[in-house]
Design a protein that fits this description.
With about 325 residues, this protein is α+β, with helices and mostly antiparallel strands. The chain is built from 12 helices and 5 strands. A 5-stranded antiparallel beta sheet has the order 4-3-2-1-5. Strand 1 and strand 2 form a beta hairpin. Helix 5 packs across helix 6 and helix 9 crosses helix 10. The radius of gyration is 22 Å and the shape is elongated.
Length: about 325
């Protein structure tokens, strides 16, 4: 059976389900307000697989070190700083998974694993040190009015003196942006405690992807004219959301952090759905599609195939992300 014929047969098979899907796409935003309560604040649980398994217990433990932080916030900082890379080193000499500069490490680095040394390259020391440093900063500004976590993050960026001087987050664009970025990213690392708000741009993203059905897959494809308008999986999802004004990262595992994570039972059309051979690590995600309802997604599956409808309930299903404009903007440009 040719690829084209296979796609046609597959479309017929799921046709009845997809007619319902399109009705659902139209109507879902009418009823979604009754289903969604948003992501609650103060969550202490990490979203499934959002932190690599090697560091999950460390982040969960040390993220509860003081009231100003939580595991999801600590995870957001580590992701923003290094993308969970323990060997990361910046041009400014920041080192390790938490990107300490040598002077700050000399003062605030701790022996987190009790092995007798303080190694900035060892996540067992660096992650506890990051949490400890956050809590130290929070203690410096504990008497400042406002949100203790935002004041702590502002101190991390601009120094505690500036927060004390301005009695809150100082009027520095860089500092205000840093606070917004980390508190937004926090939502993508926290396990939702209530239903997740629906995406306003989802229907437009689905409409874009539908127009590409039957287009041949291209590894590295982003839909450019030079590529004949072809896509790979994350190139399609990126282009679909770009069509409604949301700029996603290029690769699938970074797209996972572009918003909060609804459960399988709470999926709505437009959610990005992800697949991985390692169900404990979002950094190992290798495939993404756009959920359309009825247990199906639109995706660009692999070389030799075309953009098509595929079922999502497979053994390698990892989870989902409800893309938000703020979530996408908060993602680092490189991780």
């Amino acid at each position: 059976m040719t690829v084209r014929k296979a796609w046609i047969v597959g479309t017929v098979v799921v046709g009845s389900a997809l007619s319902f899907v399109m009705l659902l796409v139209v109507g879902v935003y009418v009823v979604a307000g009754n289903l969604a309560g948003g992501l609650g604040g103060g969550s202490k649980a990490l979203a499934k697989g959002s932190v690599p398994a090697a560091y999950q217990s460390l982040v969960q433990k040390w993220g509860n070190l003081c009231p100003a932080i939580n595991p999801a916030l600590l995870a957001a900082q580590l992701y923003q700083e290094s993308g969970f890379n323990p060997r990361a080193q910046s041009a400014a000499a920041a080192q390790g998974i938490a990107q300490f500069i040598p002077g700050t490490w000399a003062t605030h680095g701790i022996d987190g694993d009790g092995d007798g040394d303080r190694d900035v390259w060892d996540p067992n020391d660096a992650i506890p040190s990051a949490a400890s440093y956050d809590c130290t900063l929070a203690s410096y500004v504990k008497d400042v009015p406002g949100n203790p976590t935002e004041n702590m993050l502002a101190s991390y960026n601009a120094g505690a003196y500036a927060v004390i001087k301005y009695q809150g987050v100082p009027p520095y664009k860089e500092t205000q942006n840093y606070v917004k970025v980390i508190t937004t990213l926090e939502k993508s690392f926290a396990a939702p405690v209530t239903r997740v708000d629906p995406s306003e741009q989802a229907a437009g993203a689905i409409a874009y992807a539908q127009k590409k059905l039957g287009t041949p897959y291209l590894w590295g494809g982003t839909g450019s004219a030079q590529q004949g308008g072809r896509f790979d999986c994350s190139g399609l999802t990126k282009a679909a959301y770009e069509s409604v004004g949301i700029e996603l990262p290029r690769v699938a595992n970074d797209q996972y952090n572009a918003g909060p994570h609804p459960s399988r039972e709470e999926l709505l059309p437009g959610d990005l759905v992800f697949f991985s051979d390692d169900l404990a690590n979002s950094r190992a995600i290798r495939h993404v599609g756009i959920y359309v309802g009825g247990g199906y997604m639109i995706d660009a599956p692999r070389p030799g195939a075309v953009i098509r409808f595929d079922p999502i309930d497979t053994p390698d299903y990892f989870g989902a992300t409800r893309v938000t404009a703020d979530g996408a903007k908060a993602l680092p440009t490189t991780v």
